[in-house]
Amino acid sequence: MCGYAGLIESSGGPSTSCDLSALVACPRVNSLALSVDGTRLVAAVQSLSGDGTRFASGLWEIDPTGERDALRLTRSDKGESGPVFGPDGTLYFLSGRAAADGDEDEGAALWALPPRGEAVVVARHPGRDRRGHRRP
Fold first, then answer.
1. Residue among 75, 93, 83, 71 at smallest CA distance from 34
2. What are the residues facing 14 on neighbouring strands?
3. What's the number of CA atoms in the CB half-sphere (13 Å) around residue 31?
């Protein structure tokens, strides 16, 4: 179970107790985005990596009515953040993941995920990548 235990009754009365490693390992919601029509809710959920050395966020779609289970929309080692919906229902987000065309550029990019289909890069920050090469 994740979360802060809060006040715990002991023989000496209430006291605070918390397993810090368990608390740190809990997934947490960083941001929420609601579509313009109110039918889609997306959360950026940050989780500890499998080896426990870093955090990465993934995007999850949550049914605002509570009728369907949450659905993970993205999964990458770099993680995703900053979900925002466009007026046409396209979900925009930031990620440092490699593009589908094999572009291994390690800079963060703006991605677009339409209501149906695959995510595509729509913009990258100009400048140099982490290897010092000028970006086109």
1. 83
2. 9
3. 13
